[in-house]
Every structure is written in structure tokens, then in C-alpha cells.
Design goal:
This protein is an all-alpha fold. The chain is built from 11 helices and no strands. Helix 2 packs antiparallel against helix 3, helix 6 crosses helix 7 and helix 7 packs parallel to helix 11. The N and C termini lie far apart (59 Å).
Length: 215
């Protein structure tokens, strides 16, 4: 099967799988990450097929979607085998997907340029205007408050604490989003991250001015 056909089939599979997802990990998140990954791959000389397939499938294996990471990775492997992706590609794609999550700041460093590209694309979609919108969508889906000054920002946390402890949308900026600029892997992604990071900082400044009734 041609790689272009594999990509088209995978897009349809993921779109159907995530059609009712309202936590910010929906099909359009995948669409944006795929576009960013292609853009960065072109600048950094990475394998575009691996980058696109990993970008398309990365949230299928996320425990927020799959229940457990193991179940999700098994589903991704089953899908790739069903469309006859060659085993070296499958191993590379699964390696990227299993390593790219933030996981409270304790995710593993990517080994391949393709992994770095897809991780950068996913992290870029978590900052800037889109990142702000996704943060509030996710917090609402989790039943978390927009902000509560009495809930402290967590300086360090395990993956379980990151996933399960009580927090707020605004705390998420400090616990994750503002750290992402410094975690970009590739030169081009670092350039793109600068403007998005500045947008986060400007938003927070405006937010707290309004919170205190000064604007």
C-alpha cells in the first residue's frame, strides 16, 4: 500500500475515534499537530511519513483517551499492522508515541529527529492562543475551576499527581505551559515557540489585572 493511502486511511481512523472528544484532544488538535509536524520536518530534514503517522496517532495511545498507555499502544500497533505498515516504521512510530507525553515534566528525551519534530509540534499546540483555549476546555472537561488562589501551584509532581490531583486552568500555565518553550527540541520549533510563549505571558498579565478589578 502506498504511504499516501496509509496516511488517508489513518486520518479517517483517528477522526472517527476522536469525533466526540471535548477535552482539547480532539481531531482538530491532531490536524494542527500534523500540519506543524510537516512544517518542522521540512525545515529539519526529518522523515515526513514517520512524523505524520506519529502525529496522527499520538493521542490514540494517550491514557486520557485509551484508558491505559499499554492499551493505546496496542491499538496503534494493531492499526498500523492492519494497513500493512512495515515493522521498522511501526517500531519507530510506537517509540515516538510512547516517549512524547509531558507526564508532569518527567517525559523521556527523544532519540530520533522525527521524535523531536512530533514532540515539538504537540508542544507548540499547547501554547499560544490555541493552547489557552485547550487549557480551559480540558479544565472544564475535568471539572476544574478556572482559578482558585487557595490552590497552590505544584513545583514538582509525579505523572499520577499531574493527572489526578486537584488543580486549576491558571495553575496549568505555571505547571506546564510556561515550561514548554524551554523544552523545544528543534531550532525551527524554538523560533515558533517564542511568539506563542509571549502570548501566554501577556494573557496572564491581563487575566490577573481583571481578576483584581484593575482593568
Amino acid at each position: 500500500m502506498m504511504k499516501e493511502k496509509m496516511i488517508v486511511l489513518t486520518e479517517a481512523f483517528v477522526k472517527d475515534k476522536l469525533k466526540d472528544e471535548s477535552s482539547g484532544h480532539d481531531w482538530y488538535h491532531i490536524y494542527r499537530v500534523k500540519k506543524l509536524a510537516l512544517n518542522i520536518a521540512e525545515k529539519e530534514g526529518a522523515d515526513s511519513f514517520v512524523c505524520v503517522m506519529a502525529a496522527l496517532l499520538h493521542d490514540i495511545a494517550d491514557e486520557k483517551i485509551a484508558g491505559t498507555e499499554e492499551e493505546g499502544l496496542r491499538e496503534v500497533r494493531n492499526w498500523l499492522e492492519s494497513i500493512f505498515v512495515e515493522e521498522p516504521y511501526i517500531k519507530h512510530i510506537l517509540s515516538i508515541i510512547s516517549s512524547m507525553s509531558f507526564k508532569g515534566g518527567s517525559g523521556a528525551e527523544m532519540e530520533s529527529i522525527e521524535g523531536k519534530v512530533v514532540q515539538d509540534a504537540d508542544r507548540l499546540d499547547a501554547i499560544g492562543a490555541i493552547g489557552i483555549g485547550r487549557t480551559f476546555a480540558y479544565s472544564g472537561a475535568k471539572g476544574q475551576l478556572m482559578y482558585d488562589p487557595e490552590i497552590p501551584v505544584r513545583e514538582t509532581m509525579t505523572k499520577e499527581q499531574y493527572r489526578n490531583e486537584k488543580s486549576t486552568a491558571i495553575n496549568h500555565f505555571y505547571e506546564k505551559l510556561l515550561k514548554l518553550k524551554h523544552g523545544m527540541n528543534t531550532p525551527y520549533a524554538k523560533k515558533l515557540a517564542n511568539d506563542r510563549h509571549a502570548f501566554l505571558e501577556n494573557f496572564l498579565e491581563q487575566f490577573f489585572e481583571e481578576w483584581e478589578g484593575r482593568k
